[in-house]
Amino acid sequence: MRIDVVSIFPEYLAPLELSLIGKARQDGLLQLNVHNLRDFTTDRHRTVDDTPYGGGAGMVMKPEPWAQALAAVAAARPEAASADTEAPEAAAKPVLIVPSPAGERFTQATAQELAEEEQLVFACGRYEGIDERVMEWAADHFTVRPMSLGDYVLNGGEVAVLAMVEAIGRLLPGVVGNPDSLVEESHSDGLLEYPVYTKPSSWRDRDVPAVLLSGNHGKIAQWRRHEQYRRTAERRPDLLAEFDAGKLPRADRTAFADLGYDVVDGRLRRRPDAGAGRN
Ligand code: ADE
Question: What is d(CA 181, CA 179) in angstroms, rounded to the nearest whole number?
Answer without folding.
Answer: 5
